[in-house]
Amino acid sequence: MLRSRRMKIKSVQARKVSYRESYERDALALRAGSEHYMDVLVVMVETVDGAVGVGESLSYGGIDTVASAVEKMLAPLVIGQESYGVRSLWERMYKATYRLGRRGLVISAISGVDTALWDLLGKELGSPVYKLLGAARRPIKGYITGGYYREDKDIKKLVEEEKSYVQAGFDTVKIKIGGLSMKEDLERVFAVREALGKQVSIACDANNVYDLNTAMRVGRELEKLGVIFFEEPIMTDYPDLSASLARSLDMPIAGYETAYTKFEYRDLIEKHAVDIVQADASWNGGITELLNIGTLASAHGLPLIPHYSAGGIGFVASLHAAAAIGSPMIEYHLRPNPLRKKLAGDAIKYESGSFQLPDKPGLGVSIQPEVFEEFKLAEAA
Ligand SMILES: [Mg+2]
């Protein structure tokens, strides 16, 4: 039975961890001349009886600022409140930060707190999150994102990398494009297409960098190679251009992970800028908002395939939501990153290319406490 007193929120903490040895760049980072950090902000919400819920806020190079948003802007809004009022706490956080938030890092901060609240609710009720969301337990097909740019990665290494994902049991992989000339990028895709054979599906992700004309020319070539979707071809800020591209190509346009909350996704969906909707619990508004975006997509006859980028908690959160939304697939990475396991414990399990939903209370993740020391983010000099 719920006893509201013991579910009052006592504290909200943001813990920074980072694994920066093997990072690579996508086209957006390459063209902006920026790093593509996979830092992870772990958000911990504790109740007065000592129960702790965990979430993750995706933060790329802005981890200190997102941590500050969690602890300075959001914590005072939820401390002292009942932890089970997840949706009303989302509204409170969104509206209280509305003047400075609505997009970007504040929504990422809200995402971590929201996810932690769902985890907490599951733990308090002894139920896995997917059950709280009314979803049945079923395997969810995964696809593997790779083919990032790295100076020492030639086409041969790229092909080996993508092959390793197929050897791990996955039949769908993704390649980053947009970082080199059109000719060079198409050669990369062609080489992978040739090497993997017809049983394997390939998607391409341009991470926002093309103008409409280039996206059209690249898209026509990708169609000839049987690419299954063209992700974030154009900047998220130009939904009309994306819609124009979507009308001209047969290949589905997927995106836009760089959009935030149901409000921005509503515009993308209503303008027909996407054929496949991609969003992420650790970034676009938490589990609460991922469900809302999923409902919106469903009402327009579009699938939602969750995005994934960095830590392990966010992936598991998206996986629970994906079960409720009815997602046909979920994105995953297999490149070496010891943080993933240290944060998710055994909650990430796959077999024959599909992920099993964790069946423990809450998200089902168990953070290994040494992670915070072992992968401590080095302070800037
Ligand atoms: Mg992407």
Describe the structure.
The protein is of the alpha/beta class and 381 residues long. The chain has two domains: 4-126 and 369-374, Enolase-like, N-terminal domain (Enolase-like, domain 1, 2-Layer Sandwich), CATH 3.30.390; 132-356, Enolase-like C-terminal domain (TIM Barrel, Alpha-Beta Barrel). 41% of the residues lie in helices and 15% in strands. The protein has helices at residues 27-32, 63-78, 86-96, 105-125, 129-132, 155-167, 182-196, 212-224, 239-248, 261-270, 286-299, 313-325, 338-344, 371-374, and strands at residues 9-17, 40-47, 52-58, 140-146, 172-176, 201-205, 230-231, 253-255, 276-277, 330-332, 349-351, 354-356. The strands form two sheets. Strands 4, 5, 6, 7, 8, 9, 10, 11 and 12 form a nine-stranded mixed β-sheet that branches. A three-stranded antiparallel β-sheet has the order 1-2-3. Helix 9 links the parallel strand 7 (230-231) and strand 8. Helix 3 packs antiparallel against helix 4, helix 4 packs across helix 11 (286-299) and helix 6 (155-167) runs parallel beside helix 7 (182-196). The mean pLDDT is 95. Magnesium ion (MG) binds at residues 205, 207, 231-232, 257.
